[in-house]
Design a protein that fits this description.
Helices cover 6% and strands 44% of the residues. Strand 7 and strand 8 (95-100) form a beta hairpin. It is globular, with a radius of gyration of 31 Å.
């Protein structure tokens, strides 16, 4: 599995199929070991004598001075702990220095992550990755695999910078706030092979004396009033009984704290547990931070923290009006209350015992076989949606006893007047396992707020119902299509998909032909669903021809598919003298142009004629006849159109030539050869140009995805740099910003 953004080759990264990417640097020999997770191969480093041994990459990699980089790998060694470093080289490949990680706290044969981050020195031009351990004798092995070197890997949307999130550079991103000292450590922690956001260094807070102890981030990124945020990090408590917590804090423009939301970990042990805290930034918010601590700590107890993140709250269901805290139960029961009856509602405990999303679930318990009513807080509805349909859903698990349930929504107007309850019929809650329960309800015309309400009857004493990932949203069509004539594209919107299922999307033309539609990773065929809302922009739909979309959905790769189908839709044909030339993988380059003359097509063939003595006709051996070849002549009418065509052709990618029906041509995937662009009139002020584009028909690219930032935000861009000027200095064009192609990277 290639790690995204890795400067290292796949052979150097995975040490498969050989060790050609690595060389012994000091007191060691290297060989190909086995038992790796990123492929079977591993780098086996064997000491020649006692003392430090080092191995490094054969190649060096271009770096930009004063820019942050990260290196990590997985290590294994029962005898001696390890460290990893970035070796900085100048333009003459002379070593300037090595930025080392801390040495892992203990040796372990279990695969564990070692990592380091650092800023390239001012004279650095290149860098190498170095691994090191210090055995007490010869013939001692250390093993490594799953190597990465490149720009820091960080959580998409994190408001914090790389060092605050990871602590891979130093401990300066954290401050001992109360009764504590703060330091950086490198414990032996085993993370999944494809989890790249945690590992290496952690922040360790040590309680100075008995009592409460806390620390907080020194990083205070900007935050916006009215926006819902979530903070999370991995907590490693000193004991399972320790009261450890994470806190999301908000500050005003003067730096004064104006709000804090704490989420206490219900630890099942002394492992690593990701704990969430969420809240909406209050009026007056200018910035935010994250804090962690121990209540009633014993002197010397240590709380370790890794992967600190603050982002806007995740969308559990597109359009849902429930805040994350009320939908997920990750910190408490939020606004949920028992309106009547003996039932109680709490957060499940401990961490990871019951959950569908995150690590906790809401837990409703009834001590007797009686009826109770539970209700959420009131949530504002989207403007103008009174009188429309809304859907509710809840992930449900009966873990003890049994229940009958009536699901409903209680509505309120702008004056908080109760408009009554809309409910469905009563039914037994299904069991066992987790079930998704959904309903549709119509809001009163004057409704502006709503609360989810459940009427529950326990069928026996000590009945327990778990709920998680609740949602309430305006009901919209499951499948929508919309044509955009200005970009010659069709937007396909799919709602209420099931995360974790697999999707295949076909475009269907009137003759019944099915063509797979392109997505971010290539053609969408058995692609895992990662969001309940998917929006596909189809730039390859034919122009002037009605198309529809057929969507197959599978719970597993081998299961029988369900399906959806869209309505038919047509892109307006427009002027027959205009064609579109598109880049399937980079649609931002697409443009339309005036056609002077369509190609006079040829179909070349490779043949060899052999004339046999005494025979009138030759023996001819032929390969299959090739596709179409010909010169398309187009005009650009101004400098802007000429620049657009230059940009389109610059990549050298396979392109799609599209025309309207009726001119007796078909859409073709083509490559473009050498082009000429003379002016129509041989005068310096003439801006019309006539381009001759030599086209060669090729197959539709199947693995090319619609390139983009895959969720990358402007915040992600900025957190990697001190200022926006540094962003401008790091990229040659805004397109390079979009695709994170840095100068020298």
């Amino acid at each position: 599995m290639a790690i995204a953004g890795n400067f290292l080759s796949t052979t150097t990264e995975a040490v498969d199929p050989n060790t050609s990417g690595w060389v012994a640097k000091l007191n060691c020999t290297i060989s190909l070991g086995s038992g790796g997770r990123n492929g079977d191969g591993v780098l086996a480093v064997r000491s020649v004598a006692s003392g430090e041994m080092q191995a490094r990459t054969v190649s060096s990699y271009s770096v930009v001075p004063w820019t942050q980089y990260e290196a990590f790998c997985d290590a294994s060694g029962a005898t001696v702990p390890e460290r990893i470093g970035i070796r900085w080289l100048d333009a003459a490949n002379t070593e300037i220095s090595i930025t080392w990680s801390l040495t892992t706290a203990s040796a372990s044969a279990t695969w564990h992550r070692i990592a380091v981050g650092g800023e390239a020195p001012g004279t650095a031009a290149r860098a190498q990755v170095v691994v090191s351990s210090t055995p007490a004798a010869g013939a001692v092995f250390s093993y490594y695999e799953n190597f990465f070197f490149g720009y820091p890997v960080t959580t998409v949307g994190n408001l914090f910078g790389f060092n605050t999130e990871s602590s891979e550079i130093d401990a300066t991103a954290w401050l001992n706030e109360l009764n504590s000292t703060v330091a950086r450590q490198a414990p032996m922690v085993s993370w999944p092979v494809d989890w790249y956001l945690a590992g290496g260094h952690v922040i360790a807070m040590t309680a100075s004396a008995n009592g409460n102890a806390s620390m907080r981030s020194t990083d205070r990124p900007a935050a916006t009033p009215g926006v819902e945020y979530v903070a999370h990090c991995y907590l490693n408590p000193p004991t399972s009984g320790s009261v450890t917590w994470v806190e999301l804090r908000f500050y005003d423009s003067g730096g004064s704290q104006i709000a804090a939301t704490r989420s206490v970990l219900a630890a099942p042990g002394t492992g690593w547990y990701r704990q969430y805290a969420s809240a909406t930034a209050p009026a007056g918010t200018a910035s935010c931070s994250i804090a962690a601590g121990i209540d009633t700590a014993t002197a010397g107890q240590v709380l370790r923290v890794d992967t600190a993140v603050v982002t806007t709250a995740p969308i559990l269901r597109a359009g849902s009006v429930l805040p994350y805290a009320d939908a997920s139960f990750e910190q408490d029961v939020a606004g949920w209350t028992v309106v009547s009856g003996v039932a109680t509602i709490t957060r499940s405990t401990p961490w990871g015992t019951y959950f569908f999303d995150g690590a906790y679930a809401g837990t409703i318990t009834s001590s007797t076989a009686t009826t109770s009513v539970i209700r959420s807080a009131k949530f504002p509805l989207p403007a103008g949606t009174g009188g429309l349909d809304f859907r509710t859903e809840v992930y449900s698990n009966v873990s003890a006893g049994g229940w009958t349930l009536t699901r409903g929504v209680r509505w309120y107007d702008a004056a908080n007047t109760d408009l009554g309850l809309t409910s469905g019929s009563s039914a037994a809650i299904p069991t066992p396992n987790w079930w998704l329960l959904g309903n549709t309800f119509t809001a009163p015309a004057t409704a502006t707020q709503a609360a989810i309400e459940y009427t529950l009857t326990a069928t026996s004493g000590s009945s327990v119902w778990r709920i998680d990932r609740l949602a309430l949203w305006q009901s919209l069509p499951l499948t929508d299509v919309e044509a955009h004539d200005d970009t010659a594209s069709i937007t396909l919107t799919l709602r209420e998909l099931t995360v974790g299922e697999y999707i295949t999307i076909y475009r269907i033309t009137p003759d019944g032909t099915r063509t797979l539609v392109r997505g971010p990773s290539g053609l969408i065929s058995l692609v895992a669903i990662t969001s309940d809302l998917t929006v596909i922009e189809d730039y390859e739909a034919p122009i002037g021809v009605e198309v529809s979309y057929y969507i197959e959905l599978r719970a597993t790769l081998s299961s029988t598919p369900g399906f959806r189908a869209s309505n038919g839709i047509t892109l307006t044909a427009g002027d027959a003298n205009i064609c579109w030339i598109k880049d399937p993988g980079q649609p931002q380059r697409n443009a339309s142009f005036m056609v002077v003359s369509p190609p006079p097509w040829k179909r070349p063939i490779t043949q060899a004629a052999y004339r046999v003595r005494g025979r009138r006709n030759p023996v001819v051996l032929s390969d299959v006849r090739g596709g179409l070849e010909g010169d398309l002549v187009i005009w650009t009418r101004n400098d802007a159109e000429a620049a657009a065509l230059h940009w389109l052709l610059d990549s050298g990618n396979t392109l799609l030539w599209q025309v309207v029906p009726g001119i007796h041509e078909t859409d073709l995937y083509v490559t473009v050869g050498e082009v000429a662009l003379p002016r129509l009139i041989d005068q310096t002020d003439e801006d019309w140009r006539q381009w001759t584009l030599p086209l060669t028909q090729v197959d539709m690219p199947t693995t090319v995805g619609v390139a983009g930032s895959a969720g990358r935000t402007w915040q992600d861009v900025l957190t990697g740099f001190a200022t926006w000027q540094d962003v401008l200095d790091a990229y040659a064009t805004w397109e390079d910003v979009l695709f994170d192609r840095r100068i020298g990277g």
